[in-house]
Specification:
By secondary structure, the protein is mainly alpha-helical. The protein has helices at 3-17, 22-37, 43-52, 55-72, 75-87, 93-109, 113-129, 134-144, 147-150, 155-164, 168-174, 176-193, 205-214, 220-243, 249-267, 273-306, 309-320, 324-339, 344-361, 366-380, 388-397, 401-425, 428-438. The longest helix has 34 residues, at 273-306.
Length: 446
């Protein structure tokens, strides 16, 4: 190992321990590494520029903006009502409403945090009136939040495509089946365990009376469906536009923003100039952070690749295991461990360039690999100790970290990990749909 690489790793790991901003660590580690080796560091600004000069980054900006408008525009509330019509009457149906609503919101936001931010204030107080323990409702919504990573459009999928130069349309399709299987698994687990978290003493008389009256309102499903149509139109427009060949993903993102503005201002009329400005400001700040992370992460990744670190990792893994099955399992463990301490974007920026040569050497299809990695970084959202969803969910609902963790571990161990293994070892789950829609070129090898 060269002196420069040692200095770079020391600065990066030391900065992580000291909780320094990741973007500056991404840039500072290679800078001081090159300085220690006496190497010209002119490649840093050019790499940073080319990383930011990307149409895929533009698509990320538009989908983040659309996600910021969702809650204030009134779309989330209509989607919850529509989800209640679909599944609200089955056992544990009110909790299943949250899972289905997250599925739909994932198709609108492309991320996990907006789903939690929109649904927890909306559902936790309401379901408490129906007798559901607040910590259970919060845990279900937090566990379901990373469906936003799997149901297209997906911001992590766009970042992966930016790093590997893969088809955005193909990867959007590749994560649909894993996302649907995850939602189905969550629904089944909820069906069997929900009664443990129902407390009759929490149920109000108003709710009991309302439940008795609801059976006599046959037009309610029609009203809820009609009210939700404008909200459901957004993902439909995105998918038809991309896969109908009418627009590119970044153009679809721009259309989604305009559509959400139209629905918020003119259809539901819940979007005000103040909330519109706040959503715009939040999106700009998020894009600034994302741009710095993408640019800095690309610089660090290229630096490590130039020094042959990725190739050394590939040779080490190939020498350690002769079985492709074990190498993929080790890769999953690697990403899950990173997910315990880091957010999705830094994991992608650091992990993907390191394991890419290894996966190419194993003849793993890169669309299939993308699906595996997106499931991995999604699980990181709900994996303790530093799970973003638990912290946000605890803050929004008032439930303690210790109250949410045992429930979320059930969803992680009994549904999340099995779905990850299915996605890893059954390539058809990821490759069949893209091959049908886009052609056999994306069929994965095993």
């Amino acid at each position: 190992m060269s002196v420069g690489l040692g200095v770079a790793l020391l600065i990066f790991l030391g900065g992580l321990v000291c909780s320094l901003p990741l973007a500056w660590l991404f840039l500072g580690a290679p800078f001081f590494g090159l300085l220690a080796d006496g190497t010209n560091y002119a490649f840093i600004p050019t790499t940073l520029y080319h990383a930011l000069n990307s149409s895929t980054l533009m698509a990320i900006a538009f989908f983040v903006y659309a996600g910021s408008l969702i809650s204030d525009a009134g779309l989330a509330d209509r989607i919850v009502r529509f989800s209640n019509v679909l599944v609200g009457r089955v056992r544990g149906g009110l909790e299943l409403v949250g899972i289905v609503a997250t599925l739909f919101l994932g198709a609108l936001t492309g991320s996990s945090v907006p789903c939690i931010a929109a649904l927890i204030p909306l559902l936790v107080p309401r379901l408490k009136k129906y007798g559901y323990a607040p910590e259970y409702t919060t845990a279900v919504l937090c566990s379901s939040s990373f469906l936003g990573y799997l149901i297209p459009p997906s911001v992590p999928a766009l970042v992966y495509c930016l790093l590997t130069q893969q088809s955005v349309a193909a990867l959007f399709l590749a994560t649909i089946f894993p996302g649907l299987i995850l939602a189905l698994g969550y629904g089944i687990l909820n069906y069997f365990i929900c009664e443990r978290y129902i407390r009759p003493e929490l149920m109000t008389e108003e709710v009991k009376n309302d439940s008795a009256k609801s059976a006599s309102r046959p037009k309610e499903p029609l009203k809820a469906t009609w009210a939700a149509l404008p909200a459901l139109g957004c993902p439909a427009i995105i998918m038809i536009g991309i896969y109908g060949g009418l627009c590119t993903p970044n153009e679809a993102g721009a259309i989604a923003v305009v559509y959400c503005m139209f629905v918020g201002f003119c259809v539901y009329r819940e979007l005000t100039l103040k909330t519109f400005w706040l959503a715009t400001l939040a999106s700009v700040l998020t894009l600034g952070v994302t741009g710095m992370l993408v640019g800095g992460g690309t610089v660090l990744a290229r630096y490590l690749v130039r020094l042959g670190v990725a190739q050394q990792v590939a040779e080490f893994m190939l020498g350690l295991f002769s079985s492709k099955t074990m190498i993929l399992l080790t890769m999953n463990v690697f990403f899950l461990l990173m997910g315990m301490f880091m957010e999705a974007l830094p994991i992608l920026l650091l992990g993907v360039p390191l394991i890419l040569p290894l996966m190419q050497g194993l003849n793993v299809n890169l669309v299939h690999l993308g699906s595996i990695i997106i499931v991995n970084v999604g699980l990181g959202v709900i994996t303790p100790p530093f799970a973003m969803s638990i912290f946000i969910g605890s803050k929004l609902s008032g439930c303690g970290y210790g109250e949410l963790l045992p429930i979320m571990l059930k969803f992680l161990l009994f549904v999340g990990i099995p779905v990850l293994l299915l996605t890893t070892y059954i390539p058809a789950l990821s490759c069949w749909l893209p091959s049908v829609v886009l052609g056999p070129i994306v069929v994965g090898a095993w």
